[in-house]
Amino acid sequence: MHPIHAQIVGCGSYLPDRILTNADLARQLDTSDDWIVARTGIQQRHIAAEGERTSDLAAHAAERALADAGIPPSDVDLLIVGTSTPDDTFPATATQVQAKLGMTRGAAFDVQAVCSGFVFALATADSFIRAGQTRTAVVIGAETYSRILDWTDRGTCVLFGDGAGALVLRAANGGGEPALAVGNRQRGILSTHLHSDGRFRDILYVDGGPSSTQTVGHLRMSGKEVFRHAVASLVSVAEEAVAANQLTLSDLDWVVPHQANIRILDSVGRKLGLPAERLIATVDRHANTSAASIPLALDVARGDGRIKPGDLVLMEAIGGGLTWGAALARW
Ligand code: UT7
Known about the structure:
By secondary structure, this protein is an alpha+beta fold. It is built from ten helices and 15 strands.
């Protein structure tokens, strides 16, 4: 019998209604649709409505993921939100999502690893399940980056958008659900791989915070340097994840990278020797939604029939910190 592990039993996402196109931005900034598309692949982004908070986006995504799983919120005993745009300094956004879902039991907390937040949150939930402490977990990536952008800085404000995505995980074996399998291959999270290196703080950060400036601050980035680190880290952590499972890159059905820039995805795909059609790209429609980008992309690819039960899916991300990581799963 396999040891306890986490199976993916539901997926959902939510995007705010308002769409901001490159043409809209070109009316308020010295930029153009041509520049943004050529340098990033981004065509549009969704922007949260006034008063719409990260916890609202997260709660909608979680409701959809739980409905997809056919699991009531009362069954959830762990809820983790990966976000770097929390509703408030405290309490954790996750507790507000918990209240919005009507959950009165279990634990809820945030994980802060910027654009790697979803992978870090997924790894945390996976560990709780493997330790036998959690049976049903909701893992959410949710962001309202529109609130921390300097809308006069064309080098950053054109890159980001708002949104949320969620997965529901359930323990298999060890008193949990019977393990789902495709043939003799076990389904669920196979392994997770997390890294960080605080020496690179200054290439991607927010120039505000409760303990430093007592302001919320704005995102600041050295784009070229982050680009270079992004490609190198996403390549190395993909290799690490497949090697840890005695697999090869050609075994992967899908790679779902953090969606920052189509040129980063193309470059990672080339260096890994993967055909472009095996990389899921949603950056054109969603822009960079930080911790929300992977679960948003998963929900698109699952919804359009690309990701199917039994597929081997690599999720990987890099973000401020720097942080980077991967999760390998059989869907
Ligand atoms: O999620 C966290 C991870 N974040 C990332 O992965 C972002 C990584 N970095 C990038 O995606 C790219 O570096 C950017 C898209 C941010 C920038 O692309 P780049 O090819 O590195 O351009 P650049 O910053 O070197 O700028 C080239 C030129 C500059 O003009 P000059 O100095 O050559 O005259 C910029 O001022 O493009 C100019 N520029 C723009 N022009 C029109 C910068 N932003 C814009 C803009 N519209 N929005």
